Predict the structure.
Amino acid sequence: MAKKVFVFLTFAAIITLVAMALTKPEPWEHQAAVREIVMKVVGREVANMPLPKEYATMGTDVAMSAAGSFLQSNMQVDDYLVVSVGMVSFHGQSLPITVGTFGKVFVLADEEDVMRVIR
């Protein structure tokens, strides 16, 4: 009986690891997940400013362009066998910001962390 349980658990672990390896998100998905959070923060900040609508739209576009450039040059995605980890270089440190597994990207930073970086 114990041997059957061991074989079953081993088989289940192998299937889970293979599924994790096959469903790892691509590097661009990590950047898209971070951009989404940055867009929320920038949109909220611009909405709180007393600006005409066309200036607010232009400010949001410029901020998103700057965020995209920052991520392109300072974010790298390390690909491990079953997960991928997005790292951002900021002030001389490399900080993990995303973890990708099972086809999903989980952002480790919340909106307040992004706000601190933006300011």
Notes: Strands lie at 75-79, 84-90, 93-101, 104-107.
